[in-house]
Amino acid sequence: MITSQRALKGAISFAIAAGLTVSLSGCFGNPFENLANGLVEGTVEKVVEGTTGVDVDVDGTGGSLPDSWPSEVPVPDGKILFSLAAAGTYSATLTVDSQDKAKAGYEQFVANGYEVVSEISLGDQGYAYGLQSDNWTVQYSWGADDEGTATVNVTASPVEE
Q1: From residue 117, how far is each of 10, 89, 102, 110, 154 by CA, in Å?
Q2: pLDDT digits (tens, 9 = 90+) for 129-151
Q3: What is the CATH number of the domain that holds 32?
């Protein structure tokens, strides 16, 4: 059972981010067509805003990381599709040119001293890692589409003392 508001918001952010990663990876239909039709954006915005009270905008046209994004949490270079900052938790979904670039983002966490605490492999279609430093707990995942583009999700929450 989730007992703190911060943990609840973190769990919601992760669930939304994971859903976006899978839906935007090309595993289900044409995600950009869905975005254009407003199906995904309206659902995500309503869920986040209704549950957390945080105003978000998901429009699929590109964006930027929140100004408060922590410098200790690297994000690979790519096109930001979605990002949010809420109660100290941060999440971003972006596309990169290849799975190699997505994997390089994960490797940057390891090189920066993050410990791998969990990992999931979906074969060639996707990967998810739980990583932790002294200050941050991070969920880093990516999925690939048929053209080789990868959709990456990074969700970071501060380590509770």
Answers
A1: 17, 19, 19, 11, 15
A2: 999 999 999 999 999 888 889 99
A3: 3.40.1000
